[in-house]
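Researcher: Can you fold this with iron/sulfur cluster in place?
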Amino acid sequence: METSPARKVAFFTLGCKTNQYDTEAMQEQFVKKGYQVVDFQEYADVYVINTCTVTSLGDRKSRQMIRKAHRTNPNAIIAVVGCYAQQAAEEVLSIPGVRVALGTRNRSKIVEYVEMAEATESSINGVEDIMKVREFEDTPIESFDGKTRAVLKIQEGCNQYCTYCIIPYVRGPIRSRKPSSVLSEVQRLAEAGFKEVVLTGIHIASYGKDLGDTSLLELLKAMHGVSGLERIRLGSIEPNLLTQEFIDCVRDLPKVCRHYHISLQSGCDATLKRMNRRYTTGEYREIVHRLRKKMPDTAITTDIMTGFPGETDEEFEETYNFVKEIGFSKIHVFQYSPRKGTPAASFKNQVSPEVKEKRSRELIELGHSLELAFMKSFVGKQVSVLFEEEHPDMKGLYEGYTEQYVRVTAPGGPELAGMILPVEIYEINRETNSLEGRVVR
Ligand code: SF4
């Protein structure tokens, strides 16, 4: 008897690490139902596009990918999920080929929605009112590819309402994944050979607040006990998480990487106030000082926004000087983009695209020089590297990351994969932006 070939599904993910996790979880749903996952460029029966709406660029790219999928197979079922679909379901469903719009909930039912749209030859709007949702939608991942570093989603939603940000409206209020569910996934990851997990969510600093009897710190302590797991990396956090108690405790949890991505957004108090960010530059400085005092080898990275409404040349200069003073190891610079429905979209004194561009360029340049200075501090020293894969262009070289998330290249072969080894650093490769060294045997 002939068996019919497996139906094919392809995925495209835009935006953050949380979206990457959600895509992997949806992928697993399709595989369980017998679908074959193919590359997004290939012909497939179903395309799932996990979208982003943090900036207008996210919306535009989401639409581009929908059109691309439709061109590859005009008869395919296209399912659009994530933040852009949550925000503009009708708009998304009006794009040719789109048969399912699913927002930031019910992703665990993605296969049912797709098959229902196919069976009924209709389009389905599965977007729900996210503001009423109070439970974390648990979509555990049970099978993993043989990688060394895994992303683990522990939290959803945000209650902060920064004036520029659309996320609280499209992801809803904070919901934390139960510690037991997080721990069983960590256990599975460790058993599958993963040495490092990266904790992700929309606002992980608020982890546990809705559950009442736990916190991010408690979760870290519990994860720390999982044998086989060697590194726990925190995704982006808010400065206020880093109280003296938190810092004192994590210092005694050596598996927690000495790498903190502490969201800054602006280095000017007046701008921070208009953004409704809940800290001052003085508090931020103090937190960094505390952290470095207890853990001097810590990498501090951040996000900075340029061109927030009303940002004057003087305000920008304050930000520039603050970034320089803190001496971040790496910064991610992005330009303010008005999002409909957020307070800042109607603020006066919107900054012109040219000025935003110019300020971004200046900060990016500063970021490069700070990054270089940070990398230089490792030359001549020994670092601990988790090796991941062969260098894409050079045979005989293997790549991995330090705890501080600095890329390191060293001579070696596949025997290094998944190993954490001491490496002596002898120089910086400016072209690949990595450290070069040799494994200390
Ligand atoms: S903390 Fe602010 S910027 Fe971050 S997701 Fe929440 S509202 Fe958006």
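Model: Folded with iron/sulfur cluster in place. The mean pLDDT is 94.
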